[in-house]
Amino acid sequence: MSKSCVIIGGGIAGISAALALTKIGVQCTVYELRAAPSTIGGSINLTPNALRLLEFLEVEVQGCRVDSIEIFSLHTGKLLGELPFRKFGPGLRVLREELLRSLLCATDRKGIKVVYDSKLAAIKDDSEDTTVTAVFANGEEVQTNFILGCDGVHSAVRGQYVESSRRPEYTGVVVAYSVIDGSGIKTHFRSTALNSGRFGSLLTSYFDPDRAKIYVGAVMEIKEENDKQGWRVRGNDRQKTMDEIERRYKNSALPCVDELIKEVKDFVFYPVYKLSPGGIWSRGRVLLLGDAAHGMPPQGESTGLAIEDAVLFARVLECTPQTSVEAIFQLYEKTRRPRIDTAYKEAVARWENVKDRSWFLQKVIEWMMWVYLWYKMGDFEASMSYDVRKEEIAIEAEFEPHS
Ligand SMILES: Cc1cc2nc3c(=O)[nH]c(=O)nc-3n(C[C@H](O)[C@H](O)[C@H](O)COP(=O)(O)OP(=O)(O)OC[C@H]3O[C@@H](n4cnc5c(N)ncnc54)[C@H](O)[C@@H]3O)c2cc1C
């Protein structure tokens, strides 16, 4: 196969797509906005199915093994339930920067070019219908067979070309996270815990193989600021956020939580955005993958979804070599939509649950947690055992041969 591809965005979706496409002989170049590899987002949980795909892409990542996510009540200190991975896995808790580093080690080994300091400015349809051109802010123009927009929830590829009206919306929730030295702290959790209360959830987790450090992520409902500058000012008001964290989580029935909060010296503050459901994923020779296509509130599986997008797209491309790029995009989308739509609904429902609520509602949630987990276990198990490499691709006869 002699197709070439430009990938916009050197995050998880972009690098995974480059690895998956290189495996089937597509020549890829990744263009990344930032001057060097970097990312925020703290620690993420890699589910067993995400780990299987990373192995398939020959990516080795270090982290803390997670047999289950434990859910505790901040009010009573009791264990309310668990989401068990061990049957499928286990899972792995890693820093996002560690995952990105591991993905980039794999691109180095494969000789995939990643060009930094390259901000996509525009996309031009070429008169010749077998190519498209990416235009960068530094003036560079690159002509290619197709473009993958892997540039995250605030995607320029989507905003400039695919669907400008679909803008990210604030979810009403901010995450403020910190990484602290965990030595000497006796924790109530095995590896990862969601500590749930009336005023949000506090995520506490080990993320390194030695379990020396602890990630503390405060998920808090915060009023929207008017613009980027407003968020910047709000984020820089460290004392205000520290006061919020203390008001919401201090003096809980879990003594370790107070100790962890005391150790927090600084934090990364960011408002969480999502896209509206559905949306357009492709236009002409340009396709969106990862958060650029289906940014949803963090629900613990989005990284896996971004990697799945990459692996599935490469599979679709591989099994339809005589088909036009537009038809390949349609086939990919048709195959991919059902899983994404289900994950989106689930993510939005779970995210609403981290918002502030009455004492009574919190009590009801705590009482009913085991019923909820029992009821959802079937969906959870189906999601953990899902393998996108086995997804059926329904190739139809009417697909046009490639010009
Ligand atoms: C608080 C939080 C917690 C999360 N926790 C989890 C978790 O526990 N488990 C999980 O699976 N997922 C989690 N996620 C979600 C997960 O991190 C994302 O779904 C995933 O990173 C999406 O990858 P992506 O490559 O699509 O986008 P991104 O990671 O956002 O990467 C986009 C890349 O594109 C680049 N870019 C942007 N604009 C341009 C441009 N104009 N030109 C060139 N490059 C550009 C950016 O610099 C960036 O490198 C969490 C997310 C958040 C916000």
Straight-line N-to-C gap:
14 Å
What is the CA-based Rg, rounded?
Answer: 22 Å
Number of helical regions: 11
Oligomer: single chain
Please name the CATH architecture of the domain at 4-169 and 275-390.
Answer: 3-Layer(bba) Sandwich
Give the SSE string: EHEEHEEEEHEEEEEHEEEEHHHEEEHHHH
What do the pLDDT scores average to?
91
Side by side, the strands of the main sheet go 6-5-14-15-16-13-17
**Biggest sheet statistics:** 7 strands, mixed
Unreliable sequence segments: none
**What portion of residues belong to β-strands?**
25-35%
Structural class: alpha/beta
Full CATH superfamily name of the domain at 4-169 and 275-390: FAD/NAD(P)-binding domain
Level-1 CATH class name of the domain at 4-169 and 275-390 = Alpha Beta
Small ligands present: flavin-adenine dinucleotide
Helix content bin: 25-40%
Instruction: Please tally the β strands and state the result.
Output: 19
Pfam families: FAD_binding_3
Organism: Hyaloscypha bicolor E
GO molecular function: FAD binding; monooxygenase activity
Protein name: FAD/NAD(P)-binding domain-containing protein
